[in-house]
Amino acid sequence: MLRSNAMDCGESPLPTPDLLLTDLNVATMVEGRSPYGVIEDAALAISGGRIDWIGPRAELPDSSPAEVRSMAGRWLTPALIDCHTHLVFAGNRAAEFEQRLGGASYEEIARAGGGIMSTVNATRAADDDDLLRQTASRLGALRAEGCATVEIKSGYGLNLQAELRLLEVIRKLGSQSDISIVSTFLGAHAIPAEYRGKADAYIDLVCEEMLPAVHENQLADAVDAYCESIAFSADQVARVFEKARALGLPIKLHADQLSDCGGAELAAGFSALSADHLEYTPTKGIDALATAGTVAVLLPGAFLTLGETQHPPVIELRDRNVPIAIATDCNPGTSPVTSLRTTMALATSLFRLTPEECLAGVTRNAARALGLAGDRGTLEPGKRADIAIWDIGHPQELSYWIGRNDLSELIVAGNFP
Ligand code: NIG
Ligand code: FE
């Protein structure tokens, strides 16, 4: 199949695309084509679920598309990607939220047996249908705002059978939905009550029983862990990562969220796809991320909900060219957020990211955080045709409006609804 674009299309004839979209403006988000990789008055051709041609309409080669649609001047961007969520859980923690507003800290609640463990108890008790229904509803909210790829972590099971069940729910959601679901195993999320005071024994279970079973049943696309004083030490996480590496599974890490645990350096040392949170990451951690090419995933929903005052080191990340993604971190404890658009707005006001950085953070860099950069996250020939169509006047509006859904249509793998 012939693929070309505005830079190299020349006089090449375009064969017969399945769908030709015209009369549109596009933010391709291709790196280095600032701002936003904008092409105004553009056209975009799709064949076999992939982008065939994209460029100024005036340069469109002759072709006989099966179908032509005018976009009436709307803006197209890559479909959004939420690269860090904990969507599979039962119940909620609104009561703990009130306790925190009354002065209790997240760590105090966790150490008293609440926090992640209270969601583990509710999730273990929920039946499969209920869990699937609650999760599908949150996934639907993300899709309704333009997400076509969503990462979902396990981590509220914390025993072999319960973790496998959560990963099976994630896979089932993937098979039921038209959008792409990336599954991440987060067995090392918290020390379950049964292992209190025996964190090393729990890590043995994760490494010797859970990870081999997860791998054998192909239930995860990556492995994550929580490195923190209320969860696992760097040495314990390193054991999980050694095992993941031996099984050929990519690595991600909840790093330096509440304190500097050496998380960023640890993640970079394992060439992790991403290190997430990073509020307390010191300069040497940022240098390590830059050297490793690990994506920094910032989570403003958790920052906001926890009333955090320590900002992630955005200026240093930017200076060292560490790719920055942003994500909802949707979870019942620290980020009850089911809107990636709201997350973009929060990232501008709380972290001072530019609207262009926010859009890159939920497209190109989010794809990279999931190991999918070659396949999606920008609009260019050969990429999967996951495309969001917006009723906006400029892409900066995507990080500006709060609570307004400007999505007109979502094209998933070339399928126009
Ligand atoms: O990303 N930090 C650990 N995990 C989640 C919180 C999970 C919870 O509190 O239930 C997070 O913030
Ligand atoms: Fe998280």
Describe the structure in your own words.
By secondary structure, the protein is an alpha/beta fold. The protein has two domains: 5-79 and 378-411, Urease, subunit C, domain 1 (Roll); 81-369, Metal-dependent hydrolases (TIM Barrel, Alpha-Beta Barrel), CATH 3.20.20. It is built from 14 helices and 15 strands. The chain has helices at 94-101, 106-111, 116-125, 128-144, 160-176, 199-216, 234-246, 263-269, 283-292, 300-305, 314-319, 340-351, 355-361, 364-369; strands spanning 4-5, 19-27, 38-47, 50-56, 68-78, 80-82, 147-153, 180-188, 222-227, 252-255, 274-277, 295-298, 324-326, 387-390, 407-411. The strands form two sheets. The chain has an eight-stranded parallel beta sheet. Strands 1-4-3-2-5-14-15 form a seven-stranded mixed beta sheet, with no helix packed on it. The longest helix has 18 residues, at 199-216. It is globular, with a radius of gyration of 21 Å. Residues 1-11 have low confidence and may be disordered.
